Amino acid sequence: MNNPQQPREYDAVLGGNSPSLEGAAVLGGIEGVKLRLQNPDAQVKIAALEQAVNYGEQGLDLVIAGLKDKSWDIQNAAYLILNSRTEPRIKQLLQNPYQQGLKLEQIEVVTVNKSGRIIQRQQRIARYFIEDLGNGVTLEMAVIPGGTFMMGSPENEEGRWTAESPQHQVTVPSFFMGKYPVTQAQYQAIMGTNSSYCNGSNRPVESTNWNNAVTFCQKLSKRTGKTYRLPSEAEWEYACRAGTTTPFHFGEMITTDLANYSGNYTYGGGIKGIYRCETTEVGSFEVANNFGLYDMHGNVWEWCQDSWHGSYKGAPTDGSAWLDTDTNVRLLCGGAWGDSPGDCRSASRSYGNLDFYGNYIGFRVVCSGAART
Length: 373
What we know:
This protein is α+β, with helices and mostly antiparallel strands. It has helices at about 30-35, 40-50, 55-65, 70-85, 90-95, 185-190, 210-225, 235-240; strands at about 105-110, 120-135, 135-145, 145-150, 170, 175-180, 230, 300-305, 330-335, 350-355, 360-365, 365. The chain folds into two domains: about 30-95, Leucine-rich Repeat Variant (Alpha Horseshoe); about 105-365, paralog of FGE (formylglycine-generating enzyme).
């Protein structure tokens, strides 16, 4: 039987077990794989994971350990490698719906060019925990890793307005966010009522004012023993962008094949599309962002915690909500089914009074400290 500690013919370097000199080629064998997994370069680590499977059970253990790596890209690579394996223990591991307390799900992320044509489809993984609301109704919450981003829009972005300035750096701690806007079934399960105009259990709840959205979070928190709330505006935009800097998380353009907005309007060099005149079921377009969130552009505007401010001068830089005690006006993000595509950009923002509602306004919840990341 071959010794997995020894280099093999497909190793980058063949040689003995003596430590390599600084700047020398990396030792082959599984020890070489382990050494490359300590490299800070994500691409080097991903290549090492891909090679690790050549070393039997010990190699698979290294790939499994990659599921716990602090890098989202490494976790993603490890999952996709394991998902292609046929070993019974690997299948059992991935079929466990609560791996490390979380559900792992393969998603598809797309990138479009400036004309709206999809130029890349990428398979990734997202992680969720599932809240049971009773009677077969569940709420999926996506893990949003902490990070730093530029909030607001650059001055040359089409459709922007001055309230999206100045762009500023914000560092957001990790949290959990609803995979979808809160649905009518979920709202009914917690509130016992549903005032939506576009009826459908799997459509987003709408015609909800800010006060009702907050009450939903309070009742959900009491039901589950966790702390649910509306997102801060910074959390919402950070989660929507999911590491991107383009107007939309799928690129420079938006089309009605990717989101629900008014196709009577165009954006940039795009073309007109479908105007559905109503909400669509959550997840209908089957296109997620890098964090596994759906419907961040269009469908319904989503309430945030923050008070309305006409610019970002003096805004928090730690991801917290920007609250004033002398105003009853709150933030809305994301655009809706009746809006122009420019209103659905990642940086787009609007506002409404605490009791303001319409059949184009819903919300999404966040939670922190609910499961291990």
